[in-house]
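Training component of the fellowship. As part of building independent skills, the fellow (R.M.) carried out the full modelling exercise for a liganded target. The chosen ligand was NAP. The inputs are recorded below so that the supervisory panel can assess the work.
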Amino acid sequence: MPVELNGSRVLLTGATGGLGQAIARALHARGANLVLTGRKVEVLDGLVAELGDRVEAKPLDLSDDGSLRGFCAETGSVDVLVANAGIPGTGKLTEYEPEQVDRVIDVNLRAPVQMTHALLPGMLERGRGHLVYVSSMSGKVATARSSLYNGTKFGLRGFAYAVREDLRGTGVGVTTVFPGFISGAGMWADSGLDLPRGIRTKSPEQVADAVIEGIEKDKAEIDVAPLFVRLGGWLAGPAPNLVAAINKRGGGEDIADSLADSQRDKR
Ligand SMILES: NC(=O)c1ccc[n+]([C@@H]2O[C@H](COP(=O)([O-])OP(=O)(O)OC[C@H]3O[C@@H](n4cnc5c(N)ncnc54)[C@H](OP(=O)(O)O)[C@@H]3O)[C@@H](O)[C@H]2O)c1
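Fellow's submitted model of the complex:
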């Protein structure tokens, strides 16, 4: 049976980011008790002041394995994990320092896996829980200048699908959310770039709605992207070269170069 959010304790990573803040507001409006994490203490404090009751803010650097393990051990029982934190990982692999490579893998993939490993036994014991992973349409479609981001987001998707199979009948559900380009706030909006004509965006609130829907209906996966982008996701499995060619013809590589430049400070 899907988890009722009202009164449930929800741990949200990346709460300080563009999508995370919208997800925090939506979960709070559903009556959840929130544990919000991120590194930007002032943004966490702002959310606590804005939301008022039922919110704990716990600063955490997900790239620090020791801090992550300590956090999971001390955080108490969690009914729902929303693993939303992520870093862009755009640009050519060869432009990265080894420690920057580690950071992308740590934040985007290792942390959600380790948090699941730490929190799942409690959920199984109670026979109740839900795991939400915020992947990306880049978890379905591989594009130029995105090897680290694609690698971690494809990996998160595979992990989530397999965990969902393992958890059938246990009372613990799993949802993967796949945002496309999100305007208004978040890592794409921060880049300040324009998309080619005809490619539309979705909002952070629509991503938050998908997280809520995933939990309340125990949905396996939800794309938050317009039809054209979702079509790319469907086609990329059987015809990855075709999708790459369409992307290239539409100026995808130039946009990817500009995006990597604008996101250099997030490595
Ligand atoms: N925006 C989009 O268009 C889009 C599209 C597809 C998928 N996504 C995915 O959606 C999720 C949220 O992205 P967003 O757009 O909200 O990005 P964002 O605004 O850049 O926020 C990223 C979040 O991740 C957290 N984070 C980064 N490094 C961290 C670290 N070392 N330790 C702890 N937290 C860390 C940041 O917190 P601190 O800086 O406070 O640490 C922040 O809360 C990501 O997984 C992203 O890949 C976004």
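The panel noted the following from the submitted structure. Residues 13 and 162 are 21 Å apart (CA to CA). The longest strand covers residues 172-179.
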